[in-house]
């Protein structure tokens, strides 16, 4: 048995052939060469033998393991002896303890060769152990850094998900520990930065840098190319725009300013604006740059209609109601899968919540007209949330049905102007679009109704998008505006809703 030297000489000192092997060993500490397996393989070549490394659990980390005495290996790993050496069956074997970053754990390096270990090979083994220990420590540090980054990223996502369900109190409480003052605001804007999936992590880091951590930067859980930024200030928004110009294939969509309880709505607006940004020279767009139908309807009548339509949800506990509304807002804008990822729940939970809202409102979200009308009511609820209602007007005014809300002169003019763009195409896009909406956005059923091929329906709908300057096949707010235009002109039947008539 041989004890390990208390003090190890500098690499290469006293070597018979100079420092060539030491230089090769040190190369493994370079950033591009840090691999324990490669070090073990190099050691085997350097001593003209066999080398293997076992971790504290007995798992082989590199090299072919020679026959070993398990009790001796355990003694070395436990630290009862620092190293061991013996000769048998025509081979010379050395066992050396390898310290791990965790003091309670250790591995064992086993080196076997036919010739006896001379001073040079003994030095190589000793210094190789030092390099392996450094690599293990560096690897643990790197892994710890990655775990910290992942935990921080998960925490940011958790804060966003709390905001999505209107739990601003919990969101502030979670954020206060790491980012004091981050959510000390009554309102904020949401921006979605789109790049490539491969560059997203770097893009997110740049978003954090330019905002000075005064914004909540989250890797979107639903779209691999998106970074979500919740920012209370205007200067941070300007800094985000500075990232877009010099970066190819990078776009920015922003929402209007909303209270923290309306972050889900702001997120939907930012995604809608992002679609517009793809057609802008500066690759950036902000929501609310065009006239929306809810602004063309009498606010008092619209508030009364919205309150009546959503009243069945008022009987629910506040937290449950907020959950259902937040899920429905996102579920009407995006797929169930995307909504589930954003909210951090399962897709079955999303569907169950939306089915509960369907039941309370006595409607069917498979009907695009029903989706459009409920989407309108949810938007009105958000936009009027901070506007005090005229109590006398709301209590004395007679209920106004949906048909009357949509039949005002301003609404009819808006609808006619919007859909008139389709009349310029000889393919009768307007007829195809009307049939497609009536069939719930199903191209096959619409094709049967029209007596054409399903692919023709899809091509017509796709052709209508640039004409109307709205996304249709993706669903969401753009499609619902087009549906409302058809309802306003009487081109579609009104949906079955508790308070729609």
- Morphology: elongated
- Going by helix content, strand content and strand pairing, the class is alpha+beta
Mean pLDDT: 84
Figure out the total of helices: 20
Total beta strands:
11
From the N-terminal CA to the C-terminal CA, the straight-line distance is 94 Å
- Approximately what portion of the residues adopt beta-strand conformation? 5-15%
Total individual domains:
3
Sketch the major β-sheet: 6 strands, mixed
Helix content: 40-55%
Rounded to an integer in angstroms, the radius of gyration calculated over CA atoms is: 33 Å
Unreliable residue runs: 1-17, 392-396
Which descriptors apply to this entry?
501 residues, alpha+beta, Alpha-Beta Plaits, 3 domains, six-stranded mixed sheet, five-stranded antiparallel sheet, 11 strands, PucR family transcriptional regulator, PucR_C-HTH_dom
Question: What does this protein structure show overall?
Answer:
Pfam families: HTH_30. Residues 338-380, 429-473 form the PucR C-terminal helix-turn-helix domain. This is PucR family transcriptional regulator. It is a single chain. The protein folds into 3 domains: 18-142, 2-Layer Sandwich (Beta-Lactamase); 166-285, RRM (RNA recognition motif) domain (Alpha-Beta Plaits), CATH 3.30.70; 294-386 and 398-489, no CATH class. It has 501 residues and is α+β, with helices and mostly antiparallel strands. The protein contains 20 helices and 11 strands. The strands form 2 sheets. Strands 6, 7, 8, 9, 10 and 11 form a 6-stranded mixed β-sheet that branches. Mean pLDDT is 84; it is low at 1-17 and 392-396. The chain has helices at 20-27, 36-46, 70-78, 119-164, 168-178, 200-211, 234-244, 263-277, 299-310, 318-333, 336-343, 347-361, 368-383, 391-396, 402-406, 409-420, 429-438, 443-450, 454-468, 477-488, and strands at residues 50-54, 60-62, 83-88, 91-99, 106-113, 187-194, 216-219, 226-231, 251-254, 258-259, 284-286.
């Amino acid at each position: 048995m041989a004890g390990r030297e208390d003090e190890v000489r500098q690499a290469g000192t006293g070597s018979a052939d100079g420092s060539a092997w030491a230089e090769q060993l040190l190369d493994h500490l370079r950033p591009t060469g840090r691999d324990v397996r490669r070090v073990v393989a190099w050691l085997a070549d350097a001593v003209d033998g066999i080398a293997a490394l076992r971790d504290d659990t007995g798992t082989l980390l590199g090299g072919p393991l020679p026959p070993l005495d398990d009790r001796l290996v355990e003694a070395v790993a436990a630290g009862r002896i620092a190293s061991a050496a013996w000769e048998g069956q025509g081979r010379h074997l050395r066992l050396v303890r390898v310290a791990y970053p965790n003091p309670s754990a250790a591995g064992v390096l086993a080196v076997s060769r036919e010739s006896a270990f001379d001073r040079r090979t003994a030095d190589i083994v000793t210094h190789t152990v030092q390099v392996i220990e450094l690599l293990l420590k560096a690897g643990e540090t790197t892994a710890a850094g990655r775990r910290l980054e992942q935990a921080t990223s998960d925490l940011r996502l958790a804060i966003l998900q709390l905001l999505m369900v209107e739990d601003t109190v919990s969101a502030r409480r979670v954020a206060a520990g790491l980012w004091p003052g981050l959510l000390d605001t009554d309102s904020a804007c949401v921006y979605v930065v789109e790049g490539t999936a491969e560059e997203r992590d770097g893009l997110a880091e740049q978003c954090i840098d330019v905002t000075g951590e005064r914004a909540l930067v989250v890797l979107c859980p639903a779209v691999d190319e998106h970074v979500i930024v919740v920012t209370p200030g205007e200067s941070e928004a300007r800094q985000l725009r500075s990232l877009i110009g010099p970066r190819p294939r990078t776009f920015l969509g922003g929402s209007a300013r909303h209270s923290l309880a309306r972050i889900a709505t702001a997120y939907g607006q930012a995604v809608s604006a992002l679609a517009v940004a793809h057609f802008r020279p500066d690759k950036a767009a902000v929501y609310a740059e065009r006239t929306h139908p809810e602004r063309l309807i009498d606010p008092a009548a619209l508030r009364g209609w919205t309150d009546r339509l959503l009243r069945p949800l008022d009987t629910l506990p506040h937290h449950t109601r907020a959950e259902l509304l937040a899920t429905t807002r996102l579920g009407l804008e995006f797929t169930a899968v995307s909504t589930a990822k954003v909210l951090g729940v399962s897709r079955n939970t999303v569907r169950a919540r939306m089915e509960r809202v369907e039941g309370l409102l006595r409607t069917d979200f498979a009907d695009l007209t029903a989706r459009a009308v409920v989407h309108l009511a949810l938007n009105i609820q958000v936009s009027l949330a901070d506007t005090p209602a005229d109590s006398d007007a709301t209590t004395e005014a007679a209920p106004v049905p949906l048909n009357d809300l949509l039949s005002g002169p301003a609404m009819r003019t808006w609808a006619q102007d919007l859909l008139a763009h389709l009349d310029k195409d000889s393919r009768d896009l307007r007829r195809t679009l009307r049939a497609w909406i009536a069939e719930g956005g199903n191209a096959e059923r619409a094709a049967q109704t029209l007596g054409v091929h399903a692919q023709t329906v899809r091509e017509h709908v796709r052709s209508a998008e640039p004409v109307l300057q709205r996304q249709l096949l993706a669903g969401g707010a753009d499609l619902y505006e087009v549906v409302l235009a058809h309802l306003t002109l009487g081109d579609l039947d009104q949906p079955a809703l508790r308070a729609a008539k």
